[in-house]
Amino acid sequence: MSDTMYLCVTCGTQYPAEDAPPARCVICEDERQYVNRQGQQWTTLSQLHGAHTNTLTEQAPGVTSIATTPKVGIGQRAYLLQTPQGNLLWDCLAYLDEATIAEIQRLGGLAAIAISHPHFYTTMADWSHAFGGVPIYIHADNRAWVMRPDPVIHYFTDESIEPLPGLRVLRLGGHFPGSAALHWPDAAEGAGALFTGDTISIAADPRWVTFMYSFPNSIPLGPRAIRRIVAGVEPLAFARLYDGWDELAGDARGAVLRSAERYLAHILEA
Ligand SMILES: [Zn+2]
Ligand SMILES: [Zn+2]
Asked: How many angstroms separate the alpha carbon of residue 106 from the centre of ligand 2?
């Protein structure tokens, strides 16, 4: 693991090896994030080792969440998706240790990684290297936010790709131009599941979702972006929705469509 690579404390983004920490975190200085009130702070994976644990929790058959306690960066969770064609890691976490690698190996290892958007890029290259250099799929429109480039990263330009047979990654845009979601039609006993990162976010009332340009700074998305997201997910069947923190069970597709209508009604009000 990369001991000399600095991680931003606030967002968990890893930067290439340097003798001194970078001057600034590009991800945090963007208006979709924020610099901690204490100022820019840095750590490394080796400094974090021993003080954190990754917990794997089976959320549903074939869907295992991975979360770090105490939290690192923005405290999101990633998902290990186990399919007959191999395992995919959807989204990523900054914290990685030998125990996590062993646990994922026990569950069949990884065949590929796909990541919704830059707030989850974190230590993605380390995750790939820990599993034999499996490909990481990222939409090319988010390339400028990759702080640690690596040959394992594949930038796709199509509107959707199949990283493994039976799994589809769709660029929906919105939060970031290359923001993507993953659709797994066979999940939830064939009712389907959608994994959305921050593209579609579960609201405090879990019957609803929301759509934001910036979550920490409460900057909404405009109608064109909302309609584009709706157009992307409307043709899909999914009973469950998993964002980076939570899950919405039941009629997840209906919840997304109703929420988009409600949102548009508010922002278009004269
Ligand atoms: Zn940062
Ligand atoms: Zn985000």
From this structure: 30
Residue partners of 260: CB distance under 8 A and separation at least 6:
211, 226, 227, 229, 230
Question: What are the CA-CA distances from residue 63 to residues 163, 186, 211 (Å)?
Answer: 16, 11, 24
Neighbours of ion ligand 1 (CB under 5 A): 8, 10-11, 13, 25, 27-28
Rounded CA Rg of the chain: 18
Closest CA to 112 of 69, 153, 52: 153
pLDDT tens sequence across 38-58: 999 999 999 999 999 999 999
* pLDDT 10s digits, 144-200: 999 999 999 999 999 999 999 999 999 999 999 999 999 999 999 999 999 999 999
Contacting residues for 202 by C-beta, under 8 A, at least 6 apart: 208, 209, 241, 243, 245, 246, 247, 248
Residues 6+ apart with CB under 8 A from 214: 31, 32, 33
Question: DSSP readout, 237-255?
Answer: --SEEEESS-EE-SSHHHH
What DSSP element (H or E) covers 98? helix 98-106
Query: Which residues, in sequence order, are CB contacts of 47 under 8 Å at separation 6+?
Result: none
Instruction: Give the DSSP H/E element, type plus range, for residue 87.
Output: strand 86-90
Q: Which ligand is nearest to the CA of 122?
A: 1
CA nearest neighbour of 242 among 60, 13, 101: 60
Amino acid symbol at 10: T
40 CA distance to ligand 1 centroid (A)? 8
Instruction: Answer whether 0.85 is exceeded by the pTM.
Output: yes
- CA of residue 204 to ligand 1 center, whole Å: 25
Domains of the chain: 6-267 (3.60.15.10)
